[in-house]
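Need the bound structure for pyridoxal-5'-phosphate, inputs here:
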Amino acid sequence: MESRFRCLPSVDSLLSEARIRQLGEVYPHDVVVDLIRKDLDRNRALIAGGGECPSSGEIVESICARLRELVSPGPRPVINATGVILHTNLGRAPLSKAAIEAMAKAGKGYCDLEFDLQTGQRGSRDVHVEALICQITGAEAALVVNNNASAVLLGLSALARRKEVIVSRGQSIEIGGGFRIPEVLRQSGAKLVEVGTTNCTYARDFEEAIGPRTAALLSVHSSNFRIVGFAADVALRELVELAGRYDLLVLDDLGSGCLLDTTAFGLGPEPRVQDSISQGASLAFFSGDKLLGGPQAGIIAGRKDLVDKLKKHPLARAVRIDKTRLAGLAATLLSYLRGEAVSEIPVWQMISAGLDRLEERAAEWAEALGESASVVEGESMVGGGSLPGSTLPTRLVAAGRPTGRPDQDFARRLAESLRRQDPPVIGRLSGNQLYLDPRSVLPEEDAVVLESLRQAVHHMLQTRKSLHIRTKEG
Ligand SMILES: *Cc1c(COP(=O)(O)O)cnc(C)c1O
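Answer from helper R.:
Posting the output first, comments after.
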């Protein structure tokens, strides 16, 4: 057994390799030794499992790669050319200039996060954006926490623990990333009572399920799917009317936290926070980084007595928000208050981008990619758990070769080459085409995008050439 590992170099001999010695000059000795040991351990396990012994060149390369990974931690900036504006895997909403500045300022020094400048006494982090949220949404009170998932969990824990919460079967849903309404309810200690059927639920279904232990009627926005055809759900107004008769709460999980009228942009209707409040929801819950266009946050707005209860709940401390995001959220909300959201907040700039300009930009991008690319009509999506099935017309760059040609794999290789650029450019692969949508890219990033596109094509040509030479030589 032992002898099979003898092919592996010793720690000392690896330390004397030129490339590793160079690393030793930049990074602490014990870090480099630790990486060497871990790599040797990994190789021993591979060999024990029947693997071949790597060359010392391969081991040196793998140690250098581990170190590179260690010292260039993510998340790395990428260019989102997928056409999905709120792409959860790519970090959802890009922030406004004002939000970025506010966050940098709050992070750089100290701030009056929990300090009352008038009295010189301890203050509350809840006060900073509460008035703004109330002014914009019409709510009596508001609270901001880590994200909407924790907002809903906090609300249910504080108001419905050991009691029953009634929800329509069509809304007992999974949002993605493991957020499932039935599981969140269980976690909060509330008992879920599902009523109606998957496609149809009526007010009488709710009414029949109301009992002595009922605390709340829950409405959940079906943010990432749509039921079409024969379907019925209970409008918020009806829930409010019913809850009023039985003295129950109406909790409204809106998901996206939209404050503007999406139909004005050619999109389908997305429920707005203001409407939820004016229609009488006891509390509305929504995200800060979806259609609101700010940093990750969960916002709870509604009745003051309930918000006060939530503020005092122990879980509120566990899901509180930090000073930088609070500052970014405040700056974002100010854009709404001033009526400047569409011109200042990137998500809305992208949604409202005109087709002419998108076409011009797509043409420039296509030119940078060369002969394989052309401009075609297509559709962008808002995404991020809002407006399912609703799209915006756009112009795409399509790159690839028609099927049957020798280089069928071109689109996939181009996508890979684009992901390797700095910054990486992420597109959408479909069939044997790669699509790039300028809508989800801010125009000021175009210079960087064009450079990445040119580099990617250049790099592909280089590797093709060297492959060609190698096959000739071989
Ligand atoms: C997105 C979403 C959530 C989760 O919000 P996060 O801010 O991602 O935690 C909860 N409910 C609904 C309806 C959603 O769309």
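Comments: The chain has a mean pLDDT of 92. The radius of gyration is 27 Å.
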